[in-house]
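go over my protein:
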Amino acid sequence: MAGDIDSRKSTSCYLIKFAGGVVAWQSKLQKCVALSTTEAEFIVITEACKELLWELGFVQDKYLLFCDSQIAIHLGKNSIFHSRSKHIDVRYHWIRDALDAKLLELAKVHTDDNGADMMIMVLT
């Protein structure tokens, strides 16, 4: 998962679509070294959620955020303590508050339909 061979940091990629068009996108190395693929994916969905709410404000009551990692979706939706994920920095758990406030919903997207994956392929 690490996008950078030297720093071992993962690459975060996401697309934000609204009304059928792309309104924002990003592809960059994460600020920290993720200890697992799950952690790297969890960081991406948190960053994408923050960007989504900043870009679109509160145009809608709720937004749908797609992710191709079922375990990252599960981790975001379930705020119970997970011994295997206790190392994930607290700042990335912000998404749980957004989900609890019903600002967005997380849903699974198949990897073949994930437009953000093409940005990872270009960078690595």
About this structure: The chain has a mean pLDDT of 77. The chain has one domain: 11-123. The first strand starts at residue 11 and ends at 18. Residues 37-56 form the longest helix (20 residues).
